[in-house]
Protein 1
Amino acid sequence: MALDDLKAALPEYAKDLKLNLSAVIGNSDLPAQQLWGTVLACAMATRSPSVLRELEPEAKANLTPAAYNAAKGAAAVMGMNNVYYRTLHLLSDKEYSSMRAGLRMNIIGTPGVEKADFELWCFAVSAINGCGQCLDSHEAVLRKHGVEREVIQASMKIAAILQGVAATLDSEAVLAGVTA
């Protein structure tokens, strides 16, 4: 199992990450599509070859082709949106916020899966990418669709843990002189 391989690759000082991987992903109460879509989208968002390489096969095995593509689409579109909307938020000149973005985001309207699942994946990617405006927007849509806070929190935990695992493994690879 890829999750076990990731845990085994983590150094002893990252024992908390190992435990959290087991608790949050290995023993998740989320339905398989929400769990593995979140895992895949977050693995892509971490930009870590080792994390993506280990988790993608299991995600693909647990997702329909439509969900697999939608999770990857969430990572892709949020990679763009998080930069754009985070920049709008950070700029002192609020005139930019009144300007038309003109960015294509068709997948958000028709993701090919349940809207709530796609929004959950977008939310988790936005957590990794640090876009408060996107986090607020996706959280509001999730709540409007009746998604409980505990489910939203579960996606935050997945995002946080995978980002920590990615940073640790990629840093250890650099320290060992290995390129990803």
Protein 2
Amino acid sequence: MKAPITTHVLDLEAGRPAADLAISLWRADQCLGRGTTDADGRVVQWDAPLAISAGDYRLVFDVAPWFAAQNRTSFYPEVTINFRVAATDEHYHVPLLLSAHGYSTYRGS
């Protein structure tokens, strides 16, 4: 079963999913869960059960160690995506398209 907030990371330079990338999910100053992307670059479940309420959240992608593990450097030590949950009965999928010198995100399905 998928968590109400999920993510997917794609390495645009390599043209493949970004496996083994550490990510944390936050609401205000509280860490709600941590995860590591699977072989397909996805986190569909966090290390703790997740119930959401309306409000602002953020995903923090720990990209510097991930790039370093591949003998690559990154301009960004981390990528933070802030987003808003409006309807708690909806699923929020927040993908990250990543390269060493840029990134993009959008609300997925």
Protein 3
Amino acid sequence: MDRWVEETFHPHWRVRLAADEVLHEVKTDHQDLVIFKNRTWGTVLMLDGVCQLTTSDEFIYHEMMAHVPLMALDKPKQVLVVGGGDGGVLREVLKHPSVEKAMLCEIDREVIDTALKYYPEIPGNTFDDERSVVVIADGRKFVAETDERFDAIIVDSSEPIGPSAALHTPEFFAACKHALKDDGILVTQNGLPFLFPDQLRDTTHAFAGLFDHVAPYMCTQPCYFGGPFALNWASNEDDHLDITAKKLAKRQEKRGIETRYWTPAVHLAAFALPRYVETVVWQAIFDGRNDRAKNGRGKNKNDKKARA
């Protein structure tokens, strides 16, 4: 009989995946890690009882994390990925020919090593690319102390529990803002808003208190059980959001980037939020703007509700 590996993140219900073959299981200094084969999902990685990726659908998350911010930029050159030791986001970042340095800051070297050993199809040759720079460090500390300035910072963290909780705080986002160029873009994952609207609310509130423009967007990630998956965007440059499908298509063609999920139409549609998500986002932006005004940091002169 197959072993069943259960997600333990949800307090009132469970999802179990058949582990046809357990490839690797270990408790590191930072997290509990298990990798196994499943006939539907391919190779599955679970950290601390939460499904993080499968080789069947990883392209969706990684493309939307990377191409939504980078396609909005004219010529992204310096990109930082915080977390993402599996190499999937880094792989997509390096598809952009203008990128001169793609830095990955991962707290746990074993995440990278296990990716290369057990699902090498995800990173591919990413870590051998001469533009890749891998730093094994606490992402919060690295961002706070770096002197470099990035066109985009992509926070590919796990859920806000355990060590990853530090990558979901206003203090961390403020450090990210400092490490961005003036027109840079910050993107982070925000979980499942149907089940955990507080995650999206808290990040949006923090973003609105720091940046002129906040724009959560969504995708459908099959292995993240519980509804559409949210990501969040922040920038001080409004032109990044006022891009057309025609311009996106032209950039994709010029850059020679092939995708399986991201398209210019999907890019634009991802920012169209369901009402239950809009309600959370609008209130969080309103509260964040008020906090910003009270703290004397100024108010965005061009608020646009969910795409403020």
Protein 4
Amino acid sequence: MSPQTQFLVQAFNAAKDDQLKPDRLIVCRSAEGARRTAQRLALSRAGVVAFSITSDDETGDYDEEPTVFYREGQIPDEFSAMP
């Protein structure tokens, strides 16, 4: 089996004490689909990030850091620091 890439969107809501509470993780079919979903969610959430991860179930290899391709609003520091 070859490596597979998943496209994901994580939205965040404001919580007490300037904390961010994550919504349910959304799996998308493509990078463009993830970007559109993130842009739509950005209108009603404190922050949102769209990213991809690549993994190979056969070998157990996976990206140690996701590739972020869209971010908007308030997001946790770990997503802000990613390229």
